[in-house]
Amino acid sequence: MPRLRVTEFLDKIVLLVAMIVFTWVGTRAIIEVRELDGIAGQGRELLSEQKVNAPTYELAAPDGSGVNWRPAESQSRGDDWLFDVFTPPVIYYDPNSREFAVTPPSIQTVDTGENLWAAFDVELLEVRQRPYKLQLVGYAGSQGSYIAYFENTETGALVYLKEGQEEPELGVRLTAFQEQQIEIKKEDDTPVVENVGVARIADYASGQEVSLTNMETKMFSDLEAKIRLLPGGVVRYVQIGSRLELESGDYIVEDLSAQPPEAMITKISKDGARRFSRTLTPAAPTELKPRGSRQKEIPQSPFAIRPRSQSKKTNG
């Protein structure tokens, strides 16, 4: 029993000493913090400058007056495409003209100065072989009294002719028309014989005689381009040497290529003092069918229409 009491007494002594030490340490910490706060409140320096041995210097900020920056140069898209190093470029897309621009479509200005010269108002849609101006699409009647009707590939209008009749606006005359039997292979290679109209046209403009059938579209070896004029969106067909006179300048078709489809077009200012050329490629695939191609929906007509086929072989 006496041993247990001594042990408990020693434990209490140790705990008391620990509490006294902890209280003393905490009190000293609080006193030190208050002294530091008092020094900071009096504006006294914590570390005297005399105790710092490092040398001190005073530097003047550069004024930049002696630096010469090169002016920003125009990009290849036009004179108004100017960007410098310190300005992030802002480029807009105009859905009406399908062109990128450095000004929003809503505030783009139109004038007769540099803006018109910088614009290139021609967009290439397609390059292909040139079809003949008339295409035979149907006929009716019997031997010696056939009436053939043709499609004007420029306007889509129908032209009705008998043998010996002329079309003054197109400069052609139907010299002969007959019905022939032609062997045609179907998709499964099964041969069938169909009656096909064959028309012979005298073309006064070219001095040639052209043979047309209602089974195929007559094409020439030279090329033509389908273009869109901006910003109105008017579609035109042009050939090498064609000249377009627009408000922004005159455009001349210098060259055409089918593979790959390209058109080299030169723009000339109204005063003829400046010119530059661009090689255009189709901006997007077009869903429009070429002029003279057969449409899925056959136009209403009192005449019999013989549908065209992709593969054919002539007897004899």
From TrEMBL:
Alphabetical UniProt keywords: Membrane, Transmembrane, Transmembrane helix
Region (Disordered): 275-316
Stretches that traverse the bilayer: 12-31
Biased composition (Basic and acidic residues): 288-297
Superkingdom to which the source organism belongs: Bacteria
This protein's name: Uncharacterized protein
